[in-house]
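Do me a favour: review this protein, sequence plus structure tokens, and tell me how the chain folds. Record follows.
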Amino acid sequence: MTTKAVMVASDVSRVYLQADMSLSVLSDVNLTIQQGEKIAIVGVSGSGKTTLLNLLGGLDDPTAGDVRICDVSWCTLGASKRAAWRNQHVGFVYQFHHLLGEFSALENVTLPLLIGGCSPVDALRKATELLVRVGLGDRLQHHPAELSGGERQRVAVARALITSPSVVLMDEPTGNLDPNTASAILDLLIELNQSLNISFVLVTHDQAIAKKMDRTLTLENGTLVSVDQNFD
């Protein structure tokens, strides 16, 4: 089966200036993500994992190097085109769900489609179908405050997937959940990855979660020091 690279980071470095000092967070990182691939990025706090996710998603620019998503470099896109390209190709799931509290589950998931120009009728239909698929068919009109932690994270997963992006970037997506709920969310993510063929890049401190991905990459002091193939 032929696959294609959906995201490529080439010699990526990120240095922050603090007063009279420079802080190197990432140094010469190279990473290729294939369509449908599940990748875990592990490392201690401060190793640069979240910074790398931000660069991959076009939320920040590298000091050196380049990140391309579907053959387009983030650095070539202005703010509006970058936002549109991100809406089309990248989904995000964070440790905390970051749902809009004044909107229902259905409205939260519908919003990325509306931003992308989908008609309200089609957006509502697609969002309803996906929420049913993630087990929230009876929670469509519930607001985040009326949902459990696991249910809120399922809404966040649906929101990330609703535009059928090329890749979903996840920063500790189960880190705020109890073990049983975290396991259920992880199983859901793996099922959706397999059925939708969307690439996942997941930052985690949990080696058990990492082992369920296709590959595990380790960041140490901003440098990618190992790449492990995971086998069942």
The domain at 5-229 is CATH 3.40.50.300 (Rossmann fold). The longest helix spans residues 179-196.
